[in-house]
Amino acid sequence: MENIRNFSIIAHIDHGKSTLADRMLQLTKVVSDNNLREQTLDTLDIERERGITVKSQTAALPYTAKNGKEYLLNLVDTPGHVDFSYEVSRALASCEAAVLLVDASQGVEAQTVANLYLAMENDLEIVPVINKVDLPSADIDGVLEQIENELGLPAEEVILASGKTGIGIEDILEAIVERVPHPEGNEEEKVSALIFDATYDPYRGAVIHTRMFNGVLKPGDKIKFMFSGETYDIEEVGYFRIQREKRDSLKAGEVGYIIAGIKRVSDIKNGDTITLNSNPCEGPLSGFREVKPVVFSSFYPIASDDYEDLSQAMERLQLNDASLIYEKDTSSALGSGFRCGFLGLLHLEIIQQRLEREFNQSIIVTAPSVRYRFQMSDGSTVYIDNPVEYPDSTFIKQSEELYIRANIVLPAEYLGPIIKLCMERRGIQQNMNYIDKKRVELIFEIPLGEVMFDFYDQLKSMSRGYASFDYEILDYRDSDLVKVDILVSGERVDALSIIVHRSRSESRGRHMCERLKDTIPKQMFKVPIQAAISGKIIARETISAMRKDVLAKCYGGDVSRKRKLLEKQKKGKKRMKMVGNVEIPQEAFLAVLKTK
Ligand code: GDP
Ligand code: MG
Predict the structure, then answer these.
(1) 21 lines ligand 1 (CB under 6 A)
(2) What is the C-alpha separation between 428 and 2, in angstroms, rounded?
(3) Does residue 131 line the site of ligand 1, with CB under 6 A?
(4) CA of 235 to the centre of ligand 2 (A)
(5) Domains in the chain, start-ordered, CATH in brackets?
(6) Does the Cβ of 80 fall within 6 Å of ligand 1?
(7) Confidence band (pLDDT; 50, 70, 90) for 472?
(8) pLDDT over 70 for what percent of the chain?
């Protein structure tokens, strides 16, 4: 155990964690130089495509230090985006140290600070690193000063590195060996191990990712999950080296996996403690903080008979993403589905894509909503996160919405438009200070519901990608809310209803009608699209009927063209949902959330 170090890499998004992790894999020969793809630890398709890390990954690195001794360094790569801080906190609970990266040209940003706090809450040793020192725009002195003044970390501990050129990587590994304490724990004591993640292998069942705190586990042992009380026989244990690598045992202090033929994934809970059935430990390890979803939305299978399939997919995905929360839900327009809670909008989008790609599900996602609070005239308090459940407005005494404290760091030149954006979203400016000559920190109190709708995208495009955004939840405040319904061909589509502030209802209603007009294809007949509050129409668009000669063309003589057209239609069908007599494409449900 003296020769084990468990650490993670934390940073603001894009400061180079995944690239640095790759270099470490290469230096310790876990992957050979010619097998190294960029961001090797980012294994999900979505991660590779978007260049962001969504899930924490684990790898065991064998390292011979300058003192001549062999070490086992367990690396956990973490996501940087605010939506995934839950993943970060789970990763950190299994470590003794955090390598804190700061981009040499960007300096300290919102998530640098937030992640540092998470690491400090977990009592981790911090190894500060200035990364990307190879950049011509690197401002090493300036960033050193920030690390000392804004983060309170001693400048002499800072290591200069570049994941691109490889400078400083060995220095970081040496610092981990020298400065970081080895894990505590005792192999002789009763087994206690923390479940910090899990995946599903169709052949082997659940694969538990665990950090051993005490004792030893090996194949044949009967383990018990303290939360569910279920027992299983271990089939295999091992380390992560990109792939799974079988071992004889997992010992106190180590990080690795357990396979025990677990097919019923509901038996496993992230944050639960594993012990030996025959000789259990006294109590569970302290788990993770409870997940608090802030964004809610419903998922429906495009074909109603795919509900069971979707149900199984959701269960397996939740195993790998404990921050996903869901329950059964029914919509009159869309049938059976699930009401889900997410940590943020990006989280929602990632879950949707993972369901489609990893689990082959075709789903409709309804407009995300936040949770609203209503004081009713009979004295009761009602919480609602689904516009469908909006109470009868005659019985509402007071409606309330959740505010956040938004922290935006941006280059000073974009200040004007971004303040304007925050004001449009009913934000109240609290503070503004210059971090240095070029960068400003803005503090706004803003209704969370306003941030849901296209705020982050706008912020990014207005600042050409340079503004960073972070927030914390404040409290519920009095508001003047209304429910806007959408009617397609006179029929209310419950899945499209939204709750908004009265002052914004008309523009949002009009915007939704326009977007639907753009995304719903022409039908054989005229289709009116309307937005209404309590039955009163506030906006209207009309999709004109398909022209006859367009149809006539399709029935012309060109066979191959006709076949192509039919194929295209068939493909399109899968992603269409019939609402009344109108076919609404899947994109329409998402399009209403975006500005043009
Ligand atoms: P992460 O979001 O923290 O995981 O960051 P990535 O490792 O995905 O890197 C973000 C971007 O910075 C990518 O385009 C990398 O190629 C680039 N990058 C990472 N490390 C370095 C470095 O040391 N020097 C330079 N110049 N670019 C880097
Ligand atoms: Mg990454």
Answers:
(1) no
(2) 53
(3) yes
(4) 32
(5) 4-179 (3.40.50.300), 192-276 (2.40.30.10), 295-366 (3.30.70.870), 374-479 (3.30.70.240), 483-593 (3.30.70.2570)
(6) yes
(7) confident
(8) 86
Which residue among 10, 12, 18, 19 is best mutated to probe the pocket of ligand 1, counting the most ligand atoms within 8 A of its Cβ?
Answer: 19
- For 362, counting Cβ atoms within 10 Å of its Cβ (0-12 exposed, 13-18 middle, 19+ buried), the class is middle
* Identity at 182, one-letter amino acid code: H
Please report which confidence band the pLDDT of residue 572 belongs to, taking 50, 70 and 90 as the band edges: very low
DSSP code at position 369: B
Q: Which ligand is nearest to the CA of 15?
A: 1
Here the tokens at position 220 are: 């044949």
- Give φ, ψ of 331 to 5 degrees: -120, 140
Is 461 among the annotated ligand-binding positions? no
In whole angstroms, what is the distance from residue 460 CA to residue 316 CA? Answer: 33
Q: Tell me whether residue 132 is annotated as binding.
A: yes
Indicate which atom in ligand 1 lies nearest the CA of residue 53.
4
Q: State the helix-helix crossing angle for 415-424 and 455-462, rounded to 10 degrees.
A: 160
Q: Is 79 in the pocket of ligand 1 (CB under 6 A)?
A: no
ipTM of the complex: 0.98
State pLDDT tens for residues 114-128: 788 878 878 899 999
Q: Is the pTM of this model over 0.80?
A: no
Dihedrals phi, psi of 533, to nearest 5 degrees: -115, 125
CA distances from 547 to 540, 544, 558, 561 (A): 22, 9, 20, 19
pLDDT confidence of residue 499: 92
pLDDT digits (tens, 9 = 90+) for 405-429: 888 888 899 999 999 999 999 999 9
Q: Give the number of other Cβ atoms within 10 Å of residue 179's Cβ.
A: 13
Predicted confidence at residue 101, as pLDDT, reads 95
**d(CA 19, ligand 1 centre) in Å:** 6
Give me ligand 2 centre to Cα 52, in Å: 5
Q: What share of the chain is helix, strand, coil (3-state, %, to 5)?
A: 30, 35, 35
Looking up tokens 């089939």 gives 235
Bridge partners, residue 257, by sequence: 209, 238
Q: In the predicted model, is pLDDT for residue 566 greater than 70?
A: no
Which residue is listed with tokens 């980012």? 42
Is 16 close to ligand 1, i.e. is its CB under 6 Å away? yes
Q: Are 408 and 442 in contact (CB under 8 A)?
A: yes
- Highest-confidence range of 226-235, 276-285, 460-469, by mean pLDDT? 226-235
Q: Is the pLDDT of residue 144 over 60?
A: yes
pLDDT for 551 beyond 50: no
Report CA Rg, the chain: 27
pLDDT band at 235 (very low <50, low <70, confident <90, very high): very high
CA–centroid distance, residue 11 to ligand 2 (Å) = 9
Residue 55 CA to ligand 2 center (angstroms) comes to: 9
Question: Hunting for tokens 């809310």 — which residue is that?
Answer: 481
